[in-house]
């Protein structure tokens, strides 16, 4: 019995305790996180992308399973990770049991930050005992997001590398857009789904890339909010000069439908499918993946102003962010349906 206190002293002195630190997340919540994080669970799709580009080896699993076409553009080590579902947003499918089964050191949520998401974070953290961190996912804050989460995950050097890329891309965009007169900036409709009648209103995180590109989101005329359903009559009234189609089915239907024939974008052949592998370039999800989308979009909208080689930019981005070397065939597949963008 006399040896027991000495044994306890040995444990305290020679066996290091798990270290932790306190951070303040985007909602102003003080969250104690492990100093060393090995497994991250993403609460939603934007967090999946962010965790993957920063530290793929720490990603515990996917919100949804990548399809075969998507897997070809991802590192082999992450292609078949388990699927835990989505904790946050309208498509929430995960539950507390899934969180506990994943055994993460941290739950990461990236995107819109408001009272609803903050309350959910507090609830899940209280029920599981797992730290839950909210990160602002605004496009303009991409560099800050990469640095902050890189620090949280203990990959500061990689976070800085990716943040520097983001800063350079957005600075170049701002500088060149300043030379484009207001009357030369396009009016764009972005259609989601096979019928293309879902879009984002003014202030929607899903459409902020249009504003970043200096374009007018014609659906902003319907008010402020998030994703919403609109009618063909509304689109005819807005008369966009460019249509971005998230679905190739929608793009094909529009081009041959007489009901759309009088829309300026259709008359001018300006209906373009947005690339989407392994993640959407404009949306789906509205995450760090949009950094390559802005390069594609600026080339589409202002080809005389943005003259850099887009193919080279795509290859660079995929190598730097997704850590894959694109083949010529993969590059061609990415650009299929958007032949106007050279």
What CATH first level of the largest domain would be assigned?
Answer: Alpha Beta
Tell me the distance between the termini. Answer: 79 Å
Q: What CATH architecture of the largest domain do you see?
A: 3-Layer(aba) Sandwich
Which overall shape is indicated by the principal axes computed on the Cα atoms?
globular
- According to CATH, the homologous superfamily of the largest domain is Nitrogenase molybdenum iron protein domain
Order of helix and strand elements from N to C terminus: HEEEHHHEHEHHEEHEEHEHHEHHH
Number of β-strand runs: 11
List the defining traits of the structure above.
342 residues; alpha/beta; Rossmann fold; 2 domains; four-stranded parallel beta sheet; three-stranded parallel beta sheet; 14 helices; 13% strand; ABC_transptr_periplasmic_BD; ABC_Transporter_SBP; Periplasmic binding protein; signal
What does this entry look like structurally?
40% of the residues lie in helices and 13% in strands. The chain is an alpha/beta fold and 342 residues long. The protein folds into 2 domains: 19-170, Nitrogenase molybdenum iron protein domain (Rossmann fold, 3-Layer(aba) Sandwich), CATH 3.40.50; 178-335, Rossmann fold (3-Layer(aba) Sandwich). Helix 12 (290-301) runs antiparallel to helix 13 (310-322).
């Amino acid at each position: 019995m006399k040896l027991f206190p000495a044994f306890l002293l040995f444990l305290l002195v020679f066996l290091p305790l798990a270290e932790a630190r306190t951070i303040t997340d985007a909602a102003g919540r003080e969250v104690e996180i492990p100093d060393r994080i090995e497994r991250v669970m993403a609460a939603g799709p934007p967090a999946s992308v962010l965790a993957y580009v920063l530290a793929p080896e720490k990603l515990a699993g996917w919100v949804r399973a990548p399809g075969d076409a998507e897997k070809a553009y991802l590192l082999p080590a992450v292609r078949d990770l388990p699927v835990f579902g989505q904790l946050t947003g309208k498509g929430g499918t995960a539950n507390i049991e899934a969180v506990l089964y994943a055994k993460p050191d941290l739950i990461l949520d990236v995107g819109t930050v408001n009272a609803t998401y903050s309350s959910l974070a507090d609830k899940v953290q209280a029920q599981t005992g797992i730290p839950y961190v909210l990160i602002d996912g605004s496009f303009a804050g991409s560099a800050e997001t990469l640095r902050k989460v890189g620090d949280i995950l203990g990959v500061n050097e990689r976070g800085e590398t990716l943040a520097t890329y983001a800063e350079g891309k957005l600075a170049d965009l701002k500088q060149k857009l300043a030379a484009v007169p207001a009357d030369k900036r396009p009016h764009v409709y972005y259609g989601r789904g096979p019928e293309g009648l879902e879009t984002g209103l003014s202030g929607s995180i899903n459409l902020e890339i249009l504003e970043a590109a200096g374009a007018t989101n014609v659906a902003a005329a319907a008010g402020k909010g998030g994703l919403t359903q609109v009618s063909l009559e509304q689109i005819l009234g807005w008369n966009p000069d460019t249509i971005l189609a998230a679905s190739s089915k929608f793009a094909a239907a529009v081009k041959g439908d007489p009901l759309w024939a009088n829309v300026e974008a259709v008359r001018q052949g300006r209906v373009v499918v947005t690339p989407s592998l392994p993640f959407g370039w404009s949306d789906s999800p509205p995450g760090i993946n949009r950094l390559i989308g802005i390069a594609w979009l600026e080339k589409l909208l202002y080809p005389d102003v943005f003259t850099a080689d887009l193919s080279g930019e795509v290859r660079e981005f995929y190598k730097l962010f997704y850590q894959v070397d694109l083949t010529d065939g993969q590059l061609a597949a990415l650009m299929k349906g958007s032949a106007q963008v050279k």
